[in-house]
């Protein structure tokens, strides 16, 4: 999934000087980013800022016009896309959906669902799940890979504010318990950075990056998000680990 390999204690995945053009439009311009183990990085930016494109580049799904992507050797990645479209006429229940990951042991599937707070939907049809339930099922499927790096693209889209708060707490718990690196991309400012270690503010290029409190006061961040920036809930976090 990458152009090369690096060994610990370097980042799980990094991009240097990433440039992507779609036609004549420059989507990403000279973007640098790195995600380490046991670190939650939040990638924020408005719609059209290039977040999904950057995620695709880091996953090796899209090749940059310039720059390079490097990952650690034998990197296992768990990925949840922005959305999942299921034919409403298709009789696909949650157990079968999870088994499509290659792991079919019902006990393992149920245990993973329980770890994300969705044990009750094991036998329900995918098409009947609420937005929040579907997000948790998609997360469970990503975790079945025992990922070193968990990549979540707009993980709380179509989820209410209460559900968003619970989901971000769950993500923080996953990071603390599993020690994996997490890259979370979102355009939703409210509470999105409550559990994060580092913020990367993107709008085609990296406008600013750093600790949430520092980014919240950065002029580039305030200019990009305007009045909405003042409504963001920022919290410091405390957990016993070291970020490279």
Describe the structure.
This protein is an alpha/beta fold and 244 residues long. The protein folds into two domains: 5-76 and 147-231, P-loop containing nucleotide triphosphate hydrolases (Rossmann fold); 87-146, no CATH class. It is 27% helix and 25% strand. The chain has a six-stranded mixed sheet, with helices on both faces. A hairpin with a 2-residue loop joins β2 and β3. α3 crosses α4. The longest helix is centred in the last third of the chain and has 18 residues, at 161-178. The chain starts with a strand and ends in a 19-residue tail after the last helix.
Fill in the keyword field for this structure:
Rossmann fold, four-stranded mixed β-sheet, six-stranded mixed β-sheet, globular, 7 helices, alpha/beta, 2 domains, 244 residues
Helix and strand topology:
Blueprint: E1 5-6, E2 13-22, E3 25-35, E4 40-44, H1 51-58, E5 66-72, E6 77-80, H2 94-99, H3 106-115, H4 131-143, E7 149-153, H5 161-178, E8 181-186, E9 198-202, E10 206-210, H6 212-216, H7 219-225
